Structure formats: C-alpha cells, structure tokens
Amino acid sequence: MQTDWLYIGIMLVVAPTFAILALIIPRILAPHKPSKLKSETYECGIQTVGDTWVQFKAQYYNFALIFLIFDVEIVFLFPWAIAYRQLPLFGVIEGILFILILVAGLIYAWKKGLLEWS
Amino acid sequence: MSDPVNFVANWLKTVFTNWGVSPTWTTIIISIIGVVVLAGVALVIDIFLVWVERKVVARFQDRLGPNRLGPFGLFQPIADVIKLLLKEDITPDKADKFLFNLAPVLALGMAIALWAVVPLAPTVIGSDLNVGVLYIVAIGSISTLGIIIAGWASNNKFALVGAFRMVAQMISYEIPMVISLLIPVILAGSMGINSIVKSQPVWYIVLAPVAALIFLISSQAELGRAPFDISEAESEIVAGFHIEYTGMKFGLFYAGELLHALTIGGFFSCFFLGGWRGWGAETYPILGIVYFFIKAFFMYWVIMWIKYTFPRIRIDQMLNLNWKFLTPLALAALIMTALLDKIFQNASSVVYIIVMLGGNLVLLYIAYLVTGIYARVERKKVASPEDNRVNFPIKSGANIVETQSSERVQA
Amino acid sequence: MTGLQILFLIIAAITLGGALMVVTTRNLIHAALWLILCLFGIAVLFVLLDAGFFAVAQVVIYIGAIAILMIFAIMLTRKVAKDSGSQTNSTWPIAGIVAIVFFGGLVFLFQNWQPIHTLPPTLPQGYNSIEQLGMALVSPDGFLIPFEVASILLLTALIGALVIAWGKNK
Questions:
Q1: Is B142 in CB contact (< 8 Å) with chain A?
Q2: Is C157 contained in some domain?
Q3: Least confident span in B378-387, C47-56, C155-164
Q4: Contact, B385 vs B409, CB < 8 A?
Q5: What is the model's pLDDT at position B411?
Q6: pLDDT tens, A63-86?
Q7: What does the alpha-carbon distance between residue B31 and residue B42 come to, in Å, rounded to a whole number?
Q8: Which of the residue ranges B44-58, B120-134, C51-65 would you say has the lowest mean pLDDT?
Q9: Residue from A49, B148, B101, B398 nearest C67 by CA
C-alpha cells in the first residue's frame, strides 16, 4: 500500500521536474532581447483598455455550485460501488435512493431555469 | 525472458542487495528509476504524437502533412522541438511571473503523472493504486487549476475569458465522466485500474456501451478538443488561456494536451476495451504492452476523428448537452446497471451479457426519443411568438422568423 | 526518527506555512492558491496515515471543487482582489500570547496522553478499507441513516445556495 503511494509521490515530483527542465533549457539556449513593445499585453495589436479584472457572469458561479454538490455526492458513491458485490439488493437500493434524492436537486435547478445560459 | 521489465527490476534489486543497500532504499531507488523511465518514455511518445497529430489531421483534410524530414516526415517533431527550445520566451510585463511559469509546468506534469497508474501489462504497472479511478479524477482537478492559473497570471482579457470557459466546461463534464467511471467500478468491484482490466473477460464496452459513450464525449470535453474548444475559439478570443505563452511554455501546453489525449485513449481502453488483454498477454506480458498501445492509439485516433469532424459548439449548447443530457443519462445508466447486475448476477454469462447489452440499448433508444421530443418542443418555442422565452443572441435568425410571423398576424 | 516521521514534519510544516500565507498575503487569488497548497498538504498527510481514499477525496472535493468555487467567487467581485487595509490591530500581541499558551498546553496534555504514543496496528493482509466503508454506509446497523440524511443535506445545500445566489437577479 505505501509502496504504491511512494511511487505516486515520486511521480508527482519527477513529472513537474521534467517540465521545469524543458523550461530551463531555453533559458540557456534561446535569445533574450526584451523590449517594451514585446512585453505588452497582447490584444491583436490594439492598446488594452481598462483592467483585466472585469466582473464575470454570475452564472459561472452557479454551475460551480451545482458541480460541487454533485462532486461530493459522487465521491460518496465510490465506496458504495466498491462494496457493491457484497451488498444485498436492499443495500443497492439504498444507494439508488441516495442518487435519486440528488436528482431532485438537478430537476429543481432545471425547472428554475438555472441551467439556461443567458 | 517473457517479462523483460520485471526481469530488469529484479536484477537491479539483487544488485542493490548485494551492494548492501537496505530493502527500503532499494524500493525507493527502483521506484525512482521506474518513474524516470516511465516519464521519459511518455515524453518521447509525446514528441512523436506531434507527428501523429499532424499527419492524421492532414489526412482528414485531404493533405499530405509533414513529409520532408526523414521517412514519412518522421523527424519533423524533432525539428519542432529544437525550434521551440531556441525560441525567445516573452513574459508580459503585467503577468504574475511565478504563476505564469507554474501553469505550463502543471499542464504537462499532470499529463505525465497520470501514467503512474496506467497498467501497461499484467505485471507492468507503475502503481496499482486501490483508488486508481479517483486518482485520475484528482489529477484532472489539478490540471483544471493549472488552466485557471494560466488565465489569471497572464493578465489578459482573452486569457481570462478562455480560462473561465475552459474551467466551466471541465468541471461540468467531470460529473458525467465520473459517473460513467462508476459503472466499470461497480462491475469490477474495485477502483484499481489493473483489477478493472483483469475483470474483463468480456470487454465492458459490451456490458456498458452507454457508459463508454458518455466517457468518450465527456473526456473529449475535459481535453478541450473540438467540438468542445470554445475555450480557445480562435475567432472570438484568439487562443484562450494560453494566448500570452510563447516558445517552450506554449510547447508545454501543446505537449500536455496531446499526451493527455493519448492518456485518455489509454484509460478508455483500460476501462472499456480490456486494456492489455489479448491473446497470450497473460504469459507474455510484453505482448500486453503491445495490445495496450494498439488500443490506446486506436482510441486516440477516434478522439482525433471526432475533433476534426465536428464544428465547434456554443457555450449554452455545451452546458445543455452536459447538464440536461449527459448527466441524467449517466445517472440512469448507473441505476440501471446497478439493478440489472444485482438481479442477473447468478444468471449464465450469455444471459447476463444479453440482458446488460439489451438494457443499455433500450436506454440509448429512450434517450434518443426524449431528445427528439425535447428538440421538437424547443423548435416550437422558437417558432411561436407568444411563448418565446428563448433569447440567446445567436438565435437572431429565429427571431427574424418570429418578427415576420408576428407582422403577418398584425397584417 | 523514522523516514515517515521526517516526511510528516516536512509536510506539516508546508501545510502550516501555506495556511499562514493564506491569512497574510494581500492578493486574494494568491491566498486561494496558498489555501490549495495547504489542502494538498492535508491530502498527503492522509496518505501517510494509510487513508488513500480520503487523500484522493480531499483533492477531488477540496481542490477540484471548493477551491475552484472560491476562485470563481473572487473573480465575480470587482476590484476587491487586493486588500489594502492594515493586517493587524492593537491586540495582536495578546492574541499571539494566548495562541502560544494554548499550543503549549495542548502539547503538554498530549505528552501525558497514552494513546498518542502507541503505533496503529498494521492492517491484515488484503483488508479492503474502502469496501468496509461502503458496506458500513448502507448497512442498517451501520451508517444508513446518516448516509441518506447526507444526501438530503446536500440537496438542501444545493437549493439553498442556488436560491441565495440567484435571488437578486430574478
């Protein structure tokens, strides 16, 4: 068990290291001649106006909320899915009930028109 | 000699033990060697994926693709890499320097990190994690983070808009993707990817075609590939979240996307096409690696096929497809699989396969009917002026029809 | 000290450092990213405790969903991403002393508490803790009621959050 995680841990260190290496090599090889014009924000040639920090649509937030709830639900379902083979039919139906209650939330959001992008 | 990978690992183990290295350090050193080799192989494959991608898209568009450097243009990606390494890197003044550099590292790093749990052959697997499926999802969440960092750190409006769209898409499609992954987990009774492969004498694409379809569509969206590429829609926001990236930093995003696509192909083959399973793979694990890569590249080709066939969809269509179609369908498939499997688990295997396949086909047919009805209702809504609550800007064409018809009523 | 203990100390230090940066950094987005580092450190601690499922669940839920939600929420605000007020007030030395005293008290108490010095028993070979968790979640003498109530709680949270988030716009 811990050997498995050891491998994952090493991977999570080594994989970004490879990527960082790929960023360091151009530091040495590539030319570096910065100029004011080059390092301006790219906006197809026009000067950028105002802040980048514009207010975003509130709807992104709504979808993130719905996602959060469903994410939590699904993580709950994984232990159930693994134990599935050992469960009696009753236990399976319990899990399905759990899903159906959450479906009610989806239906609510749908009926209220919160799933429409406008 | 039927299993060279483990042969080398065991040989190294004896060498280290003879040198007097303690068992713990032997494990650690062998793990490091394994990780470096695996990541290196993934990167080499990644470089040649550039060639595969360019060649295949050329064929889809009736062109030849790279064919000058080396046989079939095989050396083209090497030239590409040298060019990327020699290009000047431009960091915009207003960018957040550290985060700006962190984002591409996350993009490629996480694509490589996924390979830690891929079972290449029955005995060749980096780490047979017992929570493998959730590990994939977790790494996916960190890639999402990489994109939002890229968008924010660039300090560019296009980048931020692109990042927002991409993240909204990725988190939305994560739901049906994970639900569809629950179905193989239920059938195999384990989250370990190798156990899922081992439990597939019958490929799960036969037992759960609906889940396979949902996984394919939603992982296409996770990748941000066409038709789900609103995050980098060239005609609207130029290049999306990686607009400010140049040289190798852009290269890392590109490489990350390609490798991620192949990895998704590999996972599809593990979950639904039996992974390394094939004739003689149990006795000769090296054959398992071959089978795995054949299946993974086939699925990679399918992903490209979809990418180069469908036009880009709008953001409202993207969200509708996810929340009103894929998610309910995935939940229905999950419930159906759980019930049918429990009821028919003691039936003979032929009956079991027929029941599962039949259930899935019936579900698909119902989904087809329901979408048909839904589309008809939507069309009616657009066509009738009294009940027109649909006001997407893009439906202006429909509005013209509506104005004409209302004028006709007045006339 | 074993290797695991050293690893634990390093991870704990990173986690606490991340947590400290969350409250001291001026930029809200940076604060959110430090929070993510902190949450990731906790996931690694779960791994060290041999609780792999909780580790991945931590990453999926806290980093993949809650942190993203927070970043979205920060980006919905207009120009308040940089905090310019003073970060301390006149009572901070007293608060610091109280915190140190409490920390010392906890360390002292745990020194004398026996269970903290015992090592956890090793799990039997082939023990599948996630499967046991799944069985317990739906068995009537396990956590069946909390499991179903959790689902209703999630439903309530969804509806409540949407009503609050949407209330003013419609």
A1: no
A2: yes
A3: B378-387
A4: yes
A5: 38
A6: 888 888 888 888 888 888 888 888
A7: 16
A8: B120-134
A9: B148
For residues C53 and C43, what is the distance between their CA atoms, to the nearest angstrom?
A: 10
The shortest CB-CB distance from C68 to any of B129, B130, B167 is to B167
Who contacts B90 (Cβ-Cβ below 8 Å, separation ≥6)?
A: A34, A38, A39, B244, B246, B247
Q: Which has more pLDDT, C3 or A69?
A: A69
> Measured between CB atoms, does B29 come within 8 Å of chain A?
no
Residue-wise pLDDT for A7-34, tens only, equals 888 888 888 898 888 888 888 887 878 7
Can you give the residue range of the structural domain that contains C158? 133-170
**Nearest Cα residue in chain A from B26:** A3
Residues 375-394 of B with CB under 8 A from A: 391-392
Confidence of residue C105 (pLDDT cuts 50, 70, 90): very high
Q: What is the mean pLDDT of residues B270-282?
A: 81
How far apart are the CA of B384 and the nearest CA of chain A, in angstroms? 19
Of A15, A33, A70, the CB nearest to B88: A33
CB neighbour list of residue C129: distance below 8 Å, 6 or more residues apart? C51, C53, C123
Helical axes C3-24 vs C28-48, angle rounded to 10°: 160
Alpha helices in B229-326 (DSSP H): 234-237, 247-272, 285-307, 315-320
The pLDDT value recorded for residue B385 is: 60
Q: What is the pLDDT of residues B221-261, one digit of tens each?
A: 888 887 887 777 766 777 778 878 888 888 888 888 889 99
Residue C103 domain-assigned (yes or no) = no
Residue of A nearest to B82 (CA): A26
Structure tokens at B373: 């009805």
CATH number at residue C40: 1.20.120.1200
Contact residues, chain C, for B138 at CB < 8 Å: 56, 59-60, 63-64
Nearest to B178 among A48, A74, A100 (CB): A74
Give me the number of domains chain C comprises.
2
Interface of C with B in 3-62 (CB under 8 A): 3, 29, 33, 36, 52-53, 55-57, 59-60
Summarize pLDDT for B98-141 with one digit per residue, the tens: 888 888 998 889 889 888 888 887 777 777 788 888 899 889 88
Q: Which helix (H) or strand (E) holds B363?
A: helix B349-383
Q: Which residues touch B246 (CB under 8 Å, ≥6 apart)?
A: B87, B88, B89, B90
pLDDT value at residue B391: 52
Structural element, H or E, at residue A19? helix A2-29
pLDDT in the model for residue C41: 92
Structure confidence at residue A40 (pLDDT): 73
Instruction: Look at residue C55 and tell me if it is in a domain.
Output: yes
* Residue C4 resides in a domain: yes
Structure tokens at A2: 């811990």
Residue located via tokens 């509005």: B399
Q: How far apart are CA B34 and CA B325, in angstroms?
A: 42
Can you give the pLDDT at residue A50? 67
Contact C69 A68 (CB under 8 A): yes
Averaged pLDDT score across all residues of chain B: 82
Cα B135 from Cα C38, distance rounded (Å): 19
What b/e sequence results for B145-161 when a residue is b if at least 16 CB atoms lie within 10 Å of its CB, and e otherwise? bbbbbbbbbbbbbbbbb
Type of residue at B329: L
Assign residue A117 a region: left if phi > 0, alpha if psi is -120 to 50, beta otherwise?
A: beta
Question: Which of C82, C114, C141 is the C-terminal boundary of a domain?
Answer: C82
